[in-house]
Amino acid sequence: MLFSDRACAGIIEHIAAEMKKELITYLKTSDRTFSVLVDESTSLSAKTALIIYIRVTVDNEQCNYFYELLEMKDGATGSNVASSVFESLKPIGEENLKKNMIGFGTDGASVMRGQHAGAAVKLQSLTKSNFKAFHCMAHKMELAVNMSTTSAGEVARFRMFTDSIYAFYHRSPKNMYELRNVAASLHAQLVTISPVFTVRWVFSSLRAIKAFHIDFAPLYHHLVRASQDRQRPGKDKSKCAGLAKKMKEWTFVAEMLLLYDSLETLWHLSAYLQTRTASLIYVCSNENKRHDQLAVGHED
């Protein structure tokens, strides 16, 4: 067993370097076309980082390989991203980049796909390649979901309500302790409550809605008890009574279950779009088949 962090880090760095060399050698010798996938993020230490993947066919199967993680010291502008990616890909060979690089996938941000100063345009100029820049299908779907949730008044009101529930318990250990006792008395499972639609990915929102659905009975019973607790301030009791009243309305329950069903369906689509075999052609063809089936059923 290794007890030295430095030794472990050294071994990992050596393995990573050898794997990168092997990937570069394959790209140079196989003459395979490939795509570059990039994404920018900020670390916990507030450093801007850029992750690069290579998508290439190996043994007749599409594979995604981690290529490099870069620190963007000068900021993630279109020019900086393009120059950093270009310098990172240089070992593959400029002639190979020009001939075999056919795609550049991003999250669709303007700094990546801007028509004049985006990273894709700048990278095309550096590599002298005519690759196609494309918007990640999973990210595109998430943007559509986000636009729908912000434009729908019912969803916005539901989000405000769940945020109030989250704040009521998250900021008060006493309320959380009482909620656990109520759940135990009802022999009900209690799942950690979290805000809805605050994280971009559909799965996070689905998990938040699912937790709220599971905790529905304990939440309602505790809010009713809290609204009748004489030891609580009048303002606190009024708030609990209002929240319990809202949860009792059938329209609220219907909206919650509708969101649950919708997010579950969208999550399955999002999960498929993130798989290795995902294909826009496959999605569109199956969607057309589904419409044809619905049309036939309607005629029958």
Number of domain units:
2
Strand order of the largest sheet: 3-2-1-4-5
In round numbers, the mean pLDDT is 83
Largest beta-sheet characterization: 5 strands, mixed
Give the strand tally: 5
Oligomeric state as shown: single chain
Beta-sheet strand percentage? 5-15%
Radius of gyration: 26 Å
Helix/strand order:
HEEEHHEHHEHHHHHHHH
- Percentage of residues in helical conformation: 55-70%
Question: Would you identify the regions where 5 or more consecutive residues have pLDDT less than 50?
Answer: none
Structural class: alpha/beta
Tell me the number of helical segments per DSSP (H or I, 4 or more residues long): 13
Q: Sum up the overall morphology in one term.
A: elongated
Straight-line N-to-C gap: 69 Å
Characterization of the model:
The protein has helices spanning 5-29, 78-89, 94-100, 110-113, 119-127, 137-151, 153-170, 173-185, 202-214, 216-227, 234-248, 250-273, 280-299, and strands at 34-42, 48-58, 61-71, 101-106, 132-135. The chain has 300 residues and is α/β, with parallel strands linked by helices. The chain has a 5-stranded mixed beta sheet with strand order 3-2-1-4-5. Strand 1 (34-42) and strand 2 form a beta hairpin. The longest helix is centred in the N-terminal third of the chain and has 25 residues, at 5-29. The protein is elongated, with a radius of gyration of 26 Å. The N and C termini lie far apart (69 Å).
